[in-house]
Amino acid sequence: MAADLVISEGRLVAPAGTGDADAEPVDVVIEDGRIAAVVPAGESPAARRRLDASDAWVMPGFVDIQVHFRTPGATDSEDMASGAAGAAMGGVTACVIMPNTIPPIDTPEMVADVLALAAGVPCDIRTSAAITAGRTGERLADLPALYDAGVRVFTDDGDCVADNALMEAALAATVRLRGAVISQHAEDPAMVAGGVINAGAVAERLGVGGRPADAEISVVHRDIELARRTAGRYHVLHLSTAAAMGLVAQAKRDGVAVTAEVTPQHLVLTEDDVERLGTTGKMNPPLRLAADVEALRGGIVDGSLDAVATDHAPHHPSLKDQPLADAPPGMIGVETMASVVWSELVAAGQMSPARFVEVVSTAPARIAGIAHHGQPVRPGSPANVAVFDPTETWTVRAADLQSRSLNSPWAGRTLTGRVRHTVLWGSPVVVGSALSA
Ligand SMILES: [Zn+2]
Asked: Within its chain, how far is the Cα of 116 from the centroid?
C-alpha cells in the first residue's frame, strides 16, 4: 500500500549536543498524519505524493509563541487566515496568539470563540488568555477555568502586570495548574509613560520620549523574586536588554522556573535603525543598543535565553502612517522568523543547526505546553515538519508577505535560508515556497 507522503532526500538535524548531523540523506515516510518511518534516501515505498528535500534540512515545524493575529477586533490589520498563511510560509506549524484582542481573551467562552475562528487555517493556533479580567490589571481572570479550557500561557501582553500582589497571586496559581506559565510584557508602565522608543540618543535627536532599559530590568527583577517565592512558572516575553538577560540567567542557576524569549528584531536591530525604518521601527519594548544586541545574540546561543518568538504585530498601513509618537508599536515577523535567525546566526557561523531547531521549535513548544509540535523528526512523531533550504537567498518584499499589513523591518533585506515546504499533520500546506492550494 502506498504511503500518504514521502519527503525525499532531506537531511535530519541531530539533537543538540550530539554533533551536527553527518547527515546521509533520508526519506521521511508519512502516514495518517504521523511519521511512519525514516529510511535511507531512495529506499522509501511508493507514495501518493513526494516532496523534494534534496540539499535541505527536514526539521520539526517551527513554533512562534507570541503572535498577534488581531482577531477579533482589528481584522483589517490581520485575520486568522492571513496570519496563519504567513506562519505556514515561514515553516511555523504552531502559534500562540496574544489576548489583547477587542474584546480581550479572558474567559473560556472567548477562548472557544477565537479558536472557532481559527478552524481550518494552515497552522495550529493556540490561544493565550489574559492574566487579569479585561486586561485592566485590577483583578485576576478565572485562571483555573481558562486552564480547563486548554489555555497554558497567561499574559496581559501589550500591557505589563504592574501590581505586586496580582502578579504574586498569578504566579502562585500556576503551581496548581501543571504546565501553565505566566508570561510578562516586562515594562514598568510608570517608567515608560509617554515613551516612544528607547530612552537614548535617537529619542533625543527625534524629540520623542524614551522608554528606559530600567523599566524592563526592574520588572524582570521583581517578577523573578515573586517566582522564587511562589515556585510559580515565569516567562519573559520579548526580552530586550543585556541586564535583564543577566537576571534571567542567574535565576536559572538558582533553580527558579524562569524562561525568556527574544525576537529576531532584538537580535539584529538597534535604536539607530528607527531613523531608517520610521514607524515600522517602533515597538515595545523598543529596539535597544548594539551592546544589548551583542549580548542577546550570545544569550540565545548559550542558553541564557530559551526561545525566539516574533511578537508578530501587524498594523494596517493607515495606522503606521502617522507621526512616530502616535503610530502603534509593533512589527510583523512570523513569516520571516526562521530566515532571519538562520541568516544572522547560523549562516553567520554563530549558531549550530541543532541549536536553531531548539530555539525556534523545541523550546517554544515546551514553554507554551504545545503538544504535537517541536518533536524530533522520527517515527511516531506527528508530521508537523518544515523543510528548510539553508542556502537559498531571497529578498523580502513586504507586499509579497501574507500579512494584511506591511510593517516588516526586513523589507528590502536579502536573507539566506528559506522554507521550501511546510507539512501540517501530514498535509503539505506550503510546497516550493508557495502556499498549497
Ligand atoms: Zn508585548
From this structure: 22
Question: Which pLDDT score is estimated for 427?
Answer: 98
Q: Are residues 180 and 233 in the same domain?
A: yes
The three cell numbers of residue 64 are 512562534
**Crossing angle between the packed helical segments 242-253 and 290-302, to the nearest 10 degrees:** 30
Of 342, 367, 392, the position where a domain reaches its end is 367
Distance 156 CA to ligand 1 centre (A): 8
Crossing angle for the helix pair 213-230 and 164-174, to the nearest 10 degrees = 50
Q: Where are the alpha helices (DSSP H) in 47-199?
A: 80-89, 108-117, 143-148, 164-174, 189-192
Give residue 230 CA to ligand 1 midpoint distance, Å.
23
pLDDT of residue 22: 54
Which residues are within 5 Å of ligand 1 (an ion), measured at CB?
Answer: 157, 185
The closest alpha carbon to 304, from 250, 358, 257, belongs to 250
> For position 27, which CATH number holds?
2.30.40.10
Ligand 1 center–CA 98 separation, angstroms: 9
Residue-level pLDDT at 33: 98
User: One of 311, 321, 326, 400 is an active-site residue; which one?
Assistant: 311
Q: Are residues 78 and 40 in the same domain?
A: no
> Measured in Å, how far apart are the chain's first and last C-alpha atoms?
26
The segments of the chain whose pLDDT lies below 70 read: 15-23
How far, in Å, from the CA of 276 to the mean position of ligand 1?
23
49 part of a folded domain: yes
Catalytic site includes residue 311: yes
Nearest to 297 by CA among 326, 266, 274, 328: 266
Provide the grid cell at 160: 505589563
